[in-house]
Design brief:
Elements: H1 2-19, E1 27-29, E2 34-37, E3 42-48, E4 54-59, E5 62-68, E6 73-75, E7 80-87, E8 90-97, E9 106-112, E10 119-126, E11 130-133, E12 138-141, E13 146-155, E14 160-165, E15 168-169, E16 175-181, E17 187-195, E18 201-208, E19 216-225, H2 230-253, H3 265-275, H4 298-304
Parallel strand pairs: 2-10, 12-19
Antiparallel strand pairs: 1-3, 3-8, 4-5, 4-9, 5-6, 7-8, 9-10, 11-13, 13-17, 14-15, 14-18, 16-17, 18-19
């Protein structure tokens, strides 16, 4: 009889648990890890089975928002809100975090009352900074090695930087990247690409983050020119030198004539005394035309220039100012 009463009491207790509206509900699908950019909104879903009483959203263990089965919403932080969806016996609460910042990275928890079936997710907030190539004017000689510097400022975490040339990825052995973290928790990064272009090339520096759908990039065009051949320059210089040399020789030689051994300075002085005019002596241009003058090199002129006043044989001596000679016979 005693055992019968025990079985009856256990059965009634089980029936009471089965008919309890809170019995048997659970979290079907909890929130998932999320990575977003600072300044955007973060969204997390928590789906529970029918019969739930309350859903509580917590950030790093602190309650931020609660949803009651009656439809009432209790907010403890105005930056958090929610939207709800029902599909058959399933109920989904979507948590919305507005304008997330770097310090909003942490644990997100979905909890239901009277159950230990809690679900967790992690929020990672990243910061996209600036990206720029320092020098954008690259006009270089062919086969000359240059350094192109790409600078990323104010990122979190430090971005992954890589390079492309004409849309082809470059091996990481041709560039070096360094980084440091500032007091504000943001990273500054510098990447130096060493390149020896043989022709015009478009170089692109790219920075990637998980929160970016595609990398941020900066581009620069490198213009390559061929130097003028050295042999051509030397040829031009030789041409210029060749044109100047003959003119100089003619100018020098034009002042060199044949020595006049018939010139007598005493006669010139005598003529000056008689006329009082130094220009008394004139040259007969009809007799000595310019075409009759002979131009001789300096070496030959020096040879004929005897100091004894006697011209060499074969060279006639013409007096510059011939005088009339009167013969007088005395008886």
């Amino acid at each position: 009889m005693g055992k019968l009463h025990e079985w009856i009491g256990l059965t009634l207790s089980l029936l009471g648990l089965l008919i309890d509206p809170g019995f048997g509900y659970y979290i079907i699908e909890g929130p998932r890890n999320l990575t977003v950019l600072a300044g955007s909104d973060a969204r997390f879903n928590c789906t529970v089975s029918d019969g739930w009483k309350i859903i509580i959203w917590l950030f790093d263990g602190s309650p931020k928002l609660s949803v009651l089965s009656t439809g009432q919403i209790i907010q403890t932080d105005q930056r958090y809100n929610q939207q709800s969806y029902r599909n058959g016996t399933r109920f989904t609460s979507e948590l919305i975090m507005y304008d997330v910042q770097l310090n909003d990275s942490g644990q997100i928890k979905c909890s239901i009352q009277d159950a230990d079936d809690n679900k967790y997710a992690f929020l990672s907030v990243q910061v996209k900074g600036s990206l720029d190539i320092k020098d954008r004017n690259f006009t270089v000689r062919m086969n000359r090695t240059i350094n192109i510097v790409c600078e990323a400022l104010g990122w979190a975490p430090a971005p992954h930087i890589f390079w492309m040339a004409n849309n082809i990825s470059l091996d990481n052995s041709v560039y070096v990247t360094s980084q440091h973290q500032g007091l504000n928790g943001l990273y500054n990064e510098e990447s130096i690409l060493t390149l020896t272009p043989m022709t015009n090339v478009t170089v692109t520096c790219l920075a990637a983050l998980d929160a970016l759908s595609k990398p941020q990039y900066a581009t620069v065009n490198v213009t390559v020119y061929e130097p003028s051949p050295k042999s051509n320059y030397q040829k031009e210089m030789r041409k210029v030198s060749g044109k100047k040399t003959p003119d100089k020789n003619l100018e020098t030689q034009s002042h060199i004539g044949e020595v006049n051994y018939g010139y007598n300075p005493e006669e010139t002085k005598h003529a000056e005394k008689m006329t009082g005019d130094p220009a008394f002596f004139t040259v007969n241009t009809d007799t000595y035309a310019s075409k009759d003058l002979k131009v001789r090199p300096p070496s030959q002129a020096a040879y004929y220039g005897h100091h004894d006043g006697v011209p060499p044989s074969g060279i006639p001596a013409y007096p510059v100012s011939p005088r009339k000679i009167r013969n007088v016979t005395h008886v």
